[in-house]
Write a structure and sequence with these properties.
single chain, mainly alpha, Rhopdopsin 7-helix transmembrane proteins, two-stranded antiparallel ribbon, 16 helices, about 5% strand, globular, transmembrane helix, GPCR_Rhodpsn_7TM, G protein-coupled peptide receptor activity
Length: about 400
């Protein structure tokens, strides 16, 4: 080991290298599968959440989340193919490192970051809106109406690209001349021109502005780790704890109310025991619906924290410890962090289906094959109208759980 290598701090050992080496060959195929399934799932989310009966401030935010997550996944599909899958199919560096590919990589790094940042701050907005709905229900319609929600969504779409300006300034496309053999592979060492040919390859590298201004590179790390990751994660942690506390308090109140109702349900009339009318049944049902919605959104927030907090910590350590940590640890975990972020972007559909009865009902009405209807029972005339099935009645009340928050 040379004296120069001895002076470089060692942050991550051989285990990190082995993890990176073992996972990278699988990353292209894994991310491609996640992106395809996640794109379909987010498309279904958008189709369901934009239905007229599902329109509400909370669902507007969830729709914004689905759109940004869909854009991230659609953008990542060609990147996964060209960066990870094609090299395994013996595509040469000359075939891959074209100007068009470099232009796409530069676009991908910025577009994906902007969309993901918008998604992160929409998640924070969702948590704030839910906390107001649970903690200050009397102010919910005033503070979290549709107009305020649209302003918040628009603000995220405007501010997040502005935050990414240092990233745009830090990278550009540069041409490199490399000596390649007949198969397009790079020749190293003391190879001469007679053994190969010079080929111009295009790569995305740090711009001259960034190289001459180290503060610009530092600004990228601080913006990424603190503004995009750490601050939202801290805010979501606090709001999630508050929401959990509100759920427990609501459960305690409901238990007390149910007990008091049970104790006062009977009375003596003319020497006979008769039941008193249930005064609080509608209130109890509304609280249960609110709790179900809160639990579903809590699952969304906690999943976000699990995938985003580690990235924020690694980014912050890269800013504090410098390039050695970045190269030894952060870069080795780059593909793992990518697949976690993609999973986070694609799994919300499963959460909605498993935790929201109204989402399932709307999805069923939209995508259930029509020929199934001939085997469904037809409801008798009742107070809900003639020939209206339970599914139809539930459709008319779709705004009670996911939308009324």
């Amino acid at each position: 080991m040379t004296e120069t290598n001895k002076s470089v701090p060692q942050y991550c050992g051989d285990g990190m290298d082995r993890l990176h080496t073992a996972y990278v060959p699988m990353h292209g195929y894994a991310s491609l599968l996640v992106c395809i399934l996640g794109s379909i799932a987010n498309g279904l989310n958008i189709a369901v959440l934009t239905r007229h009966e599902m329109r509400s401030p909370t669902n507007a935010i969830l729709t914004g989340l689905a759109i940004t997550d869909l854009l991230v996944m659609l953008d990542y599909i060609p990147y996964a193919c060209l960066e990870y899958i094609l090299p395994n199919m013996n595509y040469s560096r000359e075939d891959r490192l074209t100007y068009g590919w470099a232009a796409y990589v530069r676009f991908h790094s910025m577009f994906a970051q902007i969309c993901h940042t918008i998604s992160i701050w929409l998640t924070v907005t969702l948590a704030v809106w839910r906390y107001i709905a649970v903690g200050y229900p009397q102010k919910n319609r005033i503070w979290c109406g549709m107009r305020t929600t649209l302003i918040a969504i628009t603000a995220s779409c405007i501010v997040c690209p502005l935050i990414s300006i240092p990233l745009v300034l830090s990278f550009n496309i540069q041409a490199d001349v490399e000596l390649l053999d007949e198969d397009g592979n790079q020749l190293k060492g003391n190879a001469s021109l007679s053994e190969g040919r010079n080929v111009t390859l295009y790569k995305v590298k740090h711009s001259e502005l960034a190289m001459n201004n180290p503060l610009l590179l530092q600004a990228n790390f601080w913006i990424y780790s603190v503004v995009i990751k750490i601050i939202p994660c801290i805010a979501l942690t606090i709001l999630s704890l508050r929401l959990i506390g509100a759920l427990l308090e609501a459960k305690r109140r409901r238990k007390q109310l149910t007990t008091s109702n049970a104790n006062g349900m009977k009375q003596m009339v003319n020497g006979k025991v008769v039941e008193k009318p249930r005064k609080h049944s509608k209130t109890l049902e509304k609280e249960k619906q609110t709790d179900r919605t809160t639990r579903m959104l809590l699952a969304v927030l906690l999943l976000f924290l699990i995938t985003e907090f580690p990235q924020g910590i690694l980014g912050l350590l890269s800013a504090l410890l410098g390039n050695p940590f970045f190269m030894q640890c952060y870069m080795k975990l780059g593909e793992v962090m990518d697949i976690l972020a993609l999973l986070n972007s694609g799994i919300n559909f499963i959460l909605y289906c498993s935790m929201s009865r109204q989402f399932r009902s709307t999805f069923n009405l939209l995508f259930r094959p029509k020929f199934f209807d001939r085997w469904l029972p037809v409801a008798q005339d009742d107070e809900n109208g003639p020939g209206r099935t339970d599914a139809g009645r539930e459709n008319n009340g779709l705004t009670t759980q996911v939308t009324q928050v």
